[in-house]
Specification:
The protein has 257 residues and is mainly alpha-helical. It has ten helices and no strands. Helix content is 68%, strand content 0%. Bound molecules: zinc ion (ZN).
Length: 257
């Protein structure tokens, strides 16, 4: 028999070279339906398990995922894409961040060298508001670099730090979803809730780092604080670089301008 996949000659039910089945089953409506159902069910179940596990005991479950069982959580990139997409669609649809919330105080303008720079920064902060999940995703490499350097002695690889920080960013995006119904019901709470959300995101990040990188009680607390502070600054600068690169093309990619 000749393999359909690699043209290798073989006997039996499977190709001895690439493992391809000798006879490929025909698609029927039933087999297509079963396949779609099984795929959806496994992804949906794993998604909700991941949400639950990363909310209740994130450090333990992340360790299980990294060192024992790769089926324990939805893969970090799928989790991030899913939560980032849902959050972006909803925040744009409901004008979630159209508050001028991140604007610099006009009184502060006196400290700036030029008015152009002041206006540029204000546009940048409006952009970080409107695309908050995007700016979080862009900041992931900065958090990865900071946690890798500061917790170097814990012997996690750079790749493992990337995975951990990707899960954290995805989880933070999902927390925003929890706020959405409350803000829609009671719009006057919006500013307080968004303040609370930022604090909650930072606390969540601290909790995960502290659980994963236990270098002794107070040293860990100090390192976690320094790490997150540096990562936020670096993330902001990195986003500023990206933003200044895309500004000339903003009209092309942004239908909301
Ligand atoms: Zn083959």
């Amino acid at each position: 028999m000749i393999c359909n996949n690699c043209n290798h000659r073989f006997r039996g039910n499977f190709c001895s070279h690439c493992g391809q089945k000798a006879e490929v089953d025909r698609f029927t409506m039933r087999s297509v339906g079963t396949e779609a159902y099984e795929f959806t069910r496994s992804i949906v179940v794993l998604f909700f398990q991941t949400v639950y596990r990363l909310s209740i005991q994130a450090p333990q479950h992340l360790k299980t995922f990294l060192f024992k069982d790769r089926e324990h959580l939805l893969s970090s990139i799928e989790y991030l894409l899913f939560s980032g997409t849902v959050v972006s669609i909803l925040t744009i649809k409901f004008n979630f961040f159209q508050t001028g919330y991140n604007q610099i105080d006009p009184m502060a303008q006196m400290h700036f060298v030029s008015t152009e720079f002041f206006i540029f920064l204000n546009h940048f902060f409006a952009y970080t508001e409107e695309y908050s999940s995007l700016t979080n995703i862009i900041a992931i490499p900065c958090f990865t670099l900071c946690s890798y350097m500061i917790f170097y002695r814990e012997h996690y690889t750079l790749g493992e730090h990337l995975i951990v920080n990707t899960y954290i960013a995805a989880q933070q995006a999902l927390f925003l979803l929890l706020l959405l119904p409350v803000i829609l019901l009671i719009p006057s709470w919006k500013e307080y809730l968004l303040d609370g959300y930022i604090v909650a995101s930072i606390v969540y990040n601290c909790w995960v780092y502290y659980g994963l990188f236990p270098e002794g009680k107070w040293l860990s607390v100090l390192k976690v604080a320094v790490c997150i502070f540096l990562a936020y600054i670096l993330g902001l600068l990195f986003n500023l670089c990206i933003y200044s690169l895309i500004v000339p093309y903003k009209e092309l990619i942004d239908p909301f301008v």
